[in-house]
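Supplementary Methods. Inverse-folding protocol.

Structures were first reduced to a discrete structure-token string of length 331. This string, shown here, constituted the complete conditioning input.
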């Protein structure tokens, strides 16, 4: 199953393999690979117990209860699929007036970005983000140039620190945009770590502290940088809404696929267990067949776990909007 938005993009250089592994599990890793790995771990664990004769499967009657539970549990997951689809559809079923209002507001934001950059904004999320990044980086560098020699030394040092921070961050984002795909999650993942609230706060503090000593053109440049950073956060929140719709739709589809497999496997196992003399194959075969059936039976739950893990992480790291931030966003 292809998952075009799950890989690449947005990974910060990390000082340790543990952090990279954690980020891969929580965010960048292919969700279906993680779900399949967890299901396989269940199957291998039960296979090990069978081979070690800890669970010899001499009496297969308890398996009737286990597979019956898997069937009922997976039918519950199918109900979850229906609920997810209702959630997604509820955002799509709107009146013409609501649709017109949303389109106008989105177009106004796009035109605002185009007016600042004097360029046509791309329709793809990655291309649009790159345009906003280039515009903001240029404004920041322009601020640094205007401030040189025109503001007090302490204010200039603070402005240089903010400009350097913004420039370095945008260089990282631009580099990842070039190397990653144009998917929604690849674009969103580039902006998960920060919403630039701290940079905006520092710029406001510079204006408040050194307002009388800052020339009008530098003060205007500071305001422009703040506006561009706010536009970045608007783009981030909008892309998050798009991503969650795509992710929930993908989750519902994958739960249906794996749910059919799991229910079919569990029913087949129950049919085998109905034989009066026990399963029609040797105990050594049972030790392999039934753990595989269990792995298939828990696959939908693992798919749900993998996808909810990522959507919950994304939601947590984008909970605050400018001018606020949270420790989770800065992690």
């Amino acid at each position: 199953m292809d998952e075009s938005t799950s890989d690449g993009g947005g990974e910060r250089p990390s000082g340790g393999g543990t952090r990279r592994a954690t980020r891969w599990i929580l965010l960048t890793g292919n969700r279906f690979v993680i779900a399949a790995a967890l299901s396989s771990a269940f199957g291998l664990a039960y296979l090990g117990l069978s081979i070690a004769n800890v669970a010899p499967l001499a009496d297969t009657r308890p398996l009737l209860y286990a597979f019956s539970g898997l069937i009922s549990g997976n039918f519950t997951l199918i109900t979850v699929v229906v609920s997810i689809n209702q959630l997604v559809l509820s955002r799509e079923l709107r009146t013409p007036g609501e649709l017109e209002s949303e389109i106008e507001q989105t177009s106004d934001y796009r035109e605002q970005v185009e007016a600042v950059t004097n360029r046509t904004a791309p329709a793809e999320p990655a291309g649009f983000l790159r345009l906003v990044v280039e515009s903001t980086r240029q404004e920041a560098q322009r601020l640094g140039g205007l401030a040189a020699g025109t503001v007090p030394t302490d204010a200039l040092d603070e402005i240089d620190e903010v400009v350097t921070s913004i420039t370095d961050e945008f260089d990282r984002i631009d580099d990842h945009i070039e190397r990653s795909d144009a998917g929604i999650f690849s674009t969103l993942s580039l902006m998960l770590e920060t919403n630039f609230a701290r940079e905006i706060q520092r710029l406001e503090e510079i204006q408040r502290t050194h307002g009388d000593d800052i020339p009008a053109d530098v003060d205007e440049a500071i305001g422009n940088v703040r506006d561009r950073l706010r536009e970045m956060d608007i783009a981030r929140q909008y892309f998050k809404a798009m991503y969650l719709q795509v992710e929930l739709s993908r989750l519902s589809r994958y739960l249906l696929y794996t749910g059919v497999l799991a229910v079919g496997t569990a029913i087949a196992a129950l049919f085998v267990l109905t034989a009066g003399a026990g399963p029609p194959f040797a105990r050594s075969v049972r030790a392999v067949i039934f753990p595989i059936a269990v792995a298939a039976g828990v696959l939908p739950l693992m798919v749900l776990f993998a996808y909810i893990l990522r959507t919950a992480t994304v939601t947590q790291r984008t909970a605050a909007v400018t001018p606020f931030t949270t420790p989770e966003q800065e992690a």
